[in-house]
Design brief:
Layout (H helix, E strand, L loop, with lengths): L7 H21 L5 E3 L5 E3 H17 L5 E3 H5 L9 E9 L1 H6 L5 E8 L2 E9 L4 E6 L3 E7 L5 E8 L10 E6 L5 H9 L2 E7 L3 H7 L5 E4 L5 H13 L3 E4 L19 E4 L6
Parallel strand pairs: 3-4, 10-11
Antiparallel strand pairs: 1-2, 4-5, 5-6, 6-7, 7-8, 8-9, 12-14, 13-14
Helix pairs in contact: 1-2, 6-7
């Protein structure tokens, strides 16, 4: 364990993520109210409550930084991102939340010049809390059994440095498509770990998996926080063209191209 010194902004956002996770868990054991968005994805009262908590908190912590959030965008509220803004998915993995498998997360990221420079991923049902900042590194925070931040103990994360071959792949539990299956079959994959939400990035950052191929659709708020954590742990997120996954793609409606997330390995 080490004791990094999170900035006041980061410390405040960590508390916000935990508060949002606590609100989600208060609804988790019940039958949440569900409605369906135009893209047929579900949204629940937990999504909306967590978003309200995060947005209000960010307004207090950093009112000068605009926030782009999944449910706010779905409602047509899209502030100009500029060069520095927050990207938020208040409940990533709503399908996992509804199926009660625990693999859903609260995602909060800070983007600067199209790159994620700060990220927090909180899985309140597990509970696991990951965070990273470019100037500090990537860490997993120590939590109490109730999912609260304990005395500030943080385990530094480092993505596994493996040679090519016999890779441990992590793949979506709810959104795996044919191209992903083909990719997994064409590489020397020794193990496939199923996981929901942005946990996939965090498992690679923690050395618990090696690669995450994603050819199905994702949004920027799905990936930004996990991307920040994986990058700070020594990993990478590259498009099929081999370019770093970038953010602020307003002209695409904030959708991502296909990408491969991995530790520091070379893939063919």
């Amino acid at each position: 364990m080490s004791k990094p010194a999170p900035s006041p902004l980061l410390a405040g956002i960590l508390d916000l993520a935990v508060d949002a996770g606590r609100a989600i868990m208060a609804i988790y054991g019940h039958d949440p109210q569900i409605r369906w968005k135009e893209d047929t994805s579900p949204v629940t009262e937990a999504d909306l409550l967590a978003e309200a908590i995060i947005l209000a908190g960010l307004e207090r912590l950093a009112p000068e930084i605009p926030a782009i959030s999944e449910e706010r965008v779905a409602a047509g509220v899209i502030p100009p991102p500029g060069n520095r803004y927050f990207l938020i998915d208040p409940l990533d993995g709503t399908k996992e939340f509804l199926s009660r498998n625990g693999e859903f997360t609260v995602n909060i990221a800070l983007i600067e010049n199209d790159k994620p420079v700060l990220g927090i991923v909180f899985a309140p049902a597990l509970p696991r809390l990951f965070w990273a900042a470019t100037e500090t590194g990537a860490f997993e925070a120590s939590l109490t059994a109730e999912g609260q931040l304990s005395n500030p103990c943080h385990r530094r994360l480092s993505a596994a440095k493996l040679a090519k071959g016999r890779l441990r792949a992590v793949a979506s539990r709810s959104h795996r498509d044919g191209r992903t299956e083909d990719w997994l079959k064409s590489h020397n994959i020794s193990e496939i770990v199923c996981a929901g939400s942005s946990l996939k990035f965090c498992l690679i950052a923690a050395g618990e998996a090696d690669v995450y191929p994603r050819f199905g659709p994702t949004m920027e708020w799905d990936t930004a926080a996990g991307h920040a954590i994986l990058s700070a742990a020594g990993g990478k997120v590259l498009t099929e063209a081999g370019e770093a996954l970038a953010y602020g793609k307003r002209e695409r409606g904030f959708t991502n191209p296909s990408f491969i997330a991995s530790g520091p390995i070379t893939l063919s």
